[in-house]
Amino acid sequence: MRRTILTITTLLLLFCSGCAVFNRNNTPALNFVENHMVPKENPARAISYPLTIPLGFSAAVVDMLLLHPLSVAGDAWDDTNEFLWSKRGWDDKFVTTTVFNAPRAAIMPIVFTVDFLARSSFDISRRGGDIRLNKENKPEPVVNQKPDQKAAESSDALAPATFWVSL
How far apart, in Å, are the Cα atoms of 130 and each of 87, 123, 135, 149? Predict the structure, then answer.
């Protein structure tokens, strides 16, 4: 009996290491509770435990059951459409492709459900983004640039002012 419990516990820990909940970017409600409701100082933090622990559990449940699944539904839909309908040779093999439309339509809910459950349960990268940050790989804009004086003094920038002056 002990060996069975130990085996089940080991398997659960092994498979849960890739869970979506362990990525902090997938838990916005829990991050909000932690950043805005939990005090930074130790005495106040300890006093707030009766309030913050139930709120933290509630936020984690909302993240697991509502927010994260909603955030990955679009990616699951895009995966389903790409897998079943894109790049199927509609121009070259119209008759053959049309014959397989009914089976594709029949398995579409199954493919979407499997992909949705996998994306909801495991930390699978977002489409077109980074796996950990869930952001697109774009360079950040340079913030410390001075505005061009000639562009600010152009007639386009002064058009509203000259309109009012001419009235």
Answer: 25, 11, 6, 38
SS3 92: coil
Residues 6+ apart with CB under 8 A from 139: none
pLDDT in tens, 38-74: 888 888 888 999 999 999 999 999 998 899 999 899 9
Burial (CB count within 10 angstroms: exposed 0-12, middle 13-18, buried 19+), residue 119 = buried
Query: Count of residues for the chain?
Result: 167
Instruction: State the amino acid at position 57 in one-letter form.
Output: F
Q: Is 152 left (phi over 0), alpha (psi -120 to 50) or beta?
A: alpha
Long-range contact list for 83-90, CB < 8 A, 24+ apart?
83/111, 84/108, 84/111
Predicted model pTM: 0.63
- Residue 65: HSE in the Cβ half-sphere, 13 Å Cα cutoff: 6
For 108-160, the pLDDT digits (tens) are 999 999 999 989 888 888 776 654 444 444 555 555 555 555 554 544 444 44
Q: How far apart are CA 116 and CA 79, in angstroms?
A: 9
